[in-house]
Here is the input.
Amino acid sequence: MGVTPDASAADAMSLASVLQSSFAAEVVLGNIFPAPADSAGKTKVDAEWVAYMRSESVEILADVARDADRWGLTEFTTAVHGHRSSGVGLIELAEAVDADLIVIGSAPGSANGRFLIGSTADQLLHGSHVPVALATTGYRRVRPDALGRLVVAFQDTQESRTALRWAADNVNGRRLTALTILLRHRVMGSQLAFDTEGLITRQLAEDAQAALDDALLDLGAQADAQMTVGDDASSAIQRFDWNGDELFVLASSRGGVLRRVFLGDMTYKLVRATPVPALVLPRRT
Here is the structure.
């Protein structure tokens, strides 16, 4: 997991502790320090500067680690890595330590209970080969003892079916919910607008439910199917009954690079709207 000396690190460590207790995971606290590009040369000045920045990174990790048990994290190792881009650096560090996923906190400025995508998250969500777990702002204050439910955002796509399979394989006795999010289709300029809108919404709901039933039947696992409808992703998500102990599992877009995370428009909106931590899976996980 990637940490920085701010509140987002506490949120990320809180999520890491929940994932650790839920999946018996090993945690590596990582920090990326700025390093020159290879083309910058290996001069003495460069070497001294890199050494200084590395030592600063080690100190940052030591400070963060001292507070780790406050956020439920008691067993972990630490690692630093140099790169001029923090997101790319975390991807390289994850590969170096053979990580199964990367955990980060929100960018500064996000409202409590929401996630704001900054430059680091953007790089991860477009380049990581492993899932990326996103801790909402303030998660440290509402952290559950363990996950109670995996909620999978489901559309009738191969990526969503793969995400559902991933959740079923990792549910470990917890509740599994497949959630279909429908957006109302507004029909304007007709006296029959409201009736037509209702017909379209009902037809979409029937089609979505049939696809979901088929996916769950094919899955052969214990799961419940739910649906939420809204004018946009945020309003639809708010209508779902969250308990606060969920992990929201999202599939990457079909437009993503092979075996990399890539946020499509809907996934991006759901990441911004979810009140619980999200886990975004790479394509063909």
Summary: The longest helix spans residues 193-219. The chain has a mean pLDDT of 85. The radius of gyration is 21 Å.
